[in-house]
Design a protein that fits this description.
Chain lengths: 449, 265
């Protein structure tokens, strides 16, 4: 490489950096930005992740409280709807896939090998319509349309500020639990980097109907908050169906509660800490007809819980989200044994328990550029029976990436995303029982309008 | 020649940097908090720029769609103050406005921001107008203790509402539909609607009686609402405050404390 070429590359790099630095501040996000004329960065640290102002707006029932909230103040053409699509190029790699030794010959024997795939992709489309039906009556409907499936992620109505108080709000329908850190609003989008695994974890061999607080749930939620949202609470009573419609499980109800408190540290700003817990019972067997399970007849309920603490810490342009969970399932749930057949429990069977957590760090260069890193782990502290390897279910995952928002205006937001993530599932290789490792690299657009 | 160009360029860069520093050198003080304009600038770009504009002149991208229009900070003219008409506001006045929001406008309450962030924002907002460097705010106008409301006080207030020509803008029933209402403009020439005093909603600059008293004494700069501090004595201003309360109570269907009504046009 010649000196001239190096100089040219250097010049290009400088120009790129200057352009990045000179980019004007971020502007709006669609549905509510259109309504209020506020920039998207007012509600989002980086969309879709909310800041405290956005969380307050959400907790107020999508109302700013400035007498401009009711639909009557909007032009008739205003339609509170948002679409989100994520066209990307991504590369996925898994190091221990069970392959036929002779491709196409299922009798040739299996071997473990690495499989890699890459190409352009679109994950589907999110549609959100939300807002206020009238003063203190809000709603949210979110269908999901995938490439091969469709469904209803959320659909709820909420009575806001009951008896004129921020401290009493009532939501009914299918909704995202008031999670410590919202799964719906993660900044990461890659296959392995997207989820909070602790929100969707069940131990090896477990058959708990409930699979984690990350699933949208059907039920009712009572919540409240201080005027500045520094203090918040929510209590939800939800079906024992893990969010599935059609009453497929039992007839018990589960309870989720979340409480958090914000406080200001001089020179650092707002910090938040909280505790949460999901407590419930899940069926271990069903009534059957001809051996077939009859939906809604789940019985032999046994208990489980997921509980922990979390924090959101701000240090100037840096912020950290920390999350801890402890989970426990009853011995019958953990060993997939009907509670009316205790003799089927393996010798030495116990209720499985585990611990997990994550740390997610962000650097807000400006409202248009955010750097992201995340580390998450799960550790089984007690397996359901001695036949399960001690480390089975353990998981480590790392994600690095950034989101850059070159376009933000009252009608649309466009983020350019690059992300690398890696996950190590301990002892889950299909043949060798070694660690199973997947890598994911993604770049593309995250676009909403 | 190259040296001259470089020197000229350096001077331009130096002047630019100097002016940039000067533009954010403003300070603010609320209670024991001191605002930092540099921090405030980052916050302004995140939260405020879309309405108030990059240069604070009220011409952000959303401004054409907002009614009333966003405040033009370059004029340093603010509605909600504790200082006399024409004076700069105190930092605490701006802090209260940011915290409270301005009812019936696009300006929400920014109470979810930390206190320090709000004070930082004030420091930056003040940098948009040289007035904040050239002038000092006048002393706040005093608010004497409120006498208790009575039918007589309400009646006197109703008479003052008429004799002071409040009804010309606010209407004889305080509904904001007086004969002058349709022709009113703000200091930038935009049409402006008189406040519906009977609506039972919050007032622009606060909900308390003291806040309403203050509005009447300071006036709302940048709007046609004048100061009545020279036209009425404090007791008379309290009478008007009590009458406005009666208007709101009456509009809500509650008991009306005053029978007196301003004469029709």
């Amino acid at each position: 490489m010649g000196t001239a070429t190096l100089k040219k590359m250097g010049t290009n790099l400088v120009v790129t950096v200057v352009l990045l630095v000179a980019i004007p501040p971020a502007h709006a996000i669609p549905a509510f930005a259109r309504k209020y004329g506020l920039p998207c960065s007012a509600c989002h640290e980086a969309w879709p992740m909310l800041n405290n102002f956005g969380q307050t707006f959400k907790d107020n029932g999508y109302q700013l409280g400035n007498d401009r909230d009711a639909p009557i103040y909007q032009q008739p053409a205003y339609w509170p709807i948002m679409f989100r699509v994520t066209p990307t190029w991504h590369r996925e790699s898994n190091n221990r896939v069970a392959l036929d030794q002779v491709p196409g010959n299922g009798k040739s024997g299996l071997m473990e090998s690495t499989v890699t795939a890459s190409g352009f992709d679109v994950g589907g489309i999110d549609i959100v319509t939300a807002g206020t039906l009238s003063k203190n009556l809000s709603f949210f409907v979110q269908p999901f349309i995938g490439n091969t499936n469709a469904g209803l992620s959320q659909a709820w109505v909420r009575l806001d500020n009951l008896v004129g108080s921020h401290w009493l709000n009532l939501k009914v329908g299918k909704f995202e639990l008031d999670e410590p850190i919202s799964q719906e609003r993660v900044l990461t989008v890659s296959n392995t980097g997207f989820p909070y695994y602790n929100y969707f974890f069940t131990p090896p061999g477990d058959n708990n109907f409930f699979t984690g607080i990350g699933n949208d749930q059907l039920g009712v939620e009572v919540s409240g908050h201080a005027e500045n949202d520094y203090t918040r609470y929510s209590v939800a009573v939800v079906n024992n169906s893990n969010g599935a419609t059609g009453l497929p499980a039992g007839q018990t109800y589960n309870v989720y509660a979340n409480l958090n408190q914000g406080f200001e540290l001089p020179g650092l700003g707002l910090q938040k800490v909280g505790v949460y817990g999901f407590f419930g019972e899940s069926p271990t067997y069903f009534q059957t007809s001809g051996g077939n399970r009859i939906p809604g007849t789940g019985t032999g309920n046994r208990s489980f819980y997921h509980a922990g603490a979390y924090g959101q810490w701000y240090f100037g342009k840096f912020d950290f989200q920390t999350f801890y969970i402890h989970g426990y399932d009853n011995v019958f749930l953990g060993n997939n044994v009907p509670a009316n057949q205790p003799s089927k429990l393996p010798v030495g069977a116990v209720g499985p328990s585990w611990n997990g957590g994550f740390v997610e760090a962000h650097y807000d260069y400006n409202p248009r550029l955010i750097l992201i890193s995340k580390y998450e782990l799960i550790r089984m502290s007690r397996q359901a029976n001695p036949g399960i390897r001690a480390n089975s279910g353990n998981l480590d995952t790392w994600t690095l990436g950034y989101r850059w928002y070159p376009i933000m205006n009252p009608r649309a937001g466009l983020a350019w995303v690059q992300e690398y993530s890696r996950i190590v599932n301990a002892g889950t290789a299909p043949l060798s029982g070694k660690d199973d490792i997947s890598n994911s690299y993604l770049m593309g657009f995250d676009f909403d309008f | 020649m190259r040296i001259k160009v470089s020197l000229a360029g350096s001077v331009v860069v130096f002047v630019f940097l100097l002016s940039s520093l000067a533009s954010v050198a403003q300070e603010s003080h609320v209670g024991n908090l001191a605002g930092n304009a540099t921090h405030g600038k980052a916050l302004y770009q995140r939260y405020c720029i879309f309405c108030h504009g990059r240069y604070g002149d009220g011409t952000g991208d959303s401004a054409p769609y907002l009614d009333p229009k966003p405040r033009d900070f370059t004029k340093a003219t603010f509605k909600c103050r504790s200082t006399p008409s024409g004076s700069l506001p105190l930092d605490s006045d701006l802090y209260d406005t940011i915290s409270r929001g301005i009812h019936a406008s696009g300006m929400p309450s920014w109470k979810p921001l930390t206190r320090q962030e709000r004070v930082d924002l004030i420091a930056y907002i003040k940098s948009f107008s040289p007035r904040f460097q050239e002038e000092k705010p006048a002393a706040p106008l005093p608010i004497p203790p409120e006498p208790s409301s009575s039918p007589d006080s309400v009646k006197r207030g109703a008479e003052l509402f008429q004799s002071m020509n409040c009804w010309l803008c606010h209407g004889k029933e305080g509904r904001g539909n007086g004969p002058s209402a349709s022709s009113l403009t703000d200091s930038k020439g935009y049409p402006i609607t008189p406040f519906d005093l009977s609506g039972g909603t919050r007032f622009k600059c606060g909900e308390s009686d003291e806040g309403l008293f203050r509005d009447l004494t300071t006036g709302l700069d940048g709007t046609p609402m004048p100061s009545f501090t020279d036209a009425m004595k404090p007791d008379q201003i309290w009478d008007v405050v009590h009458y406005i309360h009666a208007l709101r109570t009456s509009a809500k269907g509650g008991p009306t404390q005053a029978k007196a009504e301003p004469k029709a046009e």
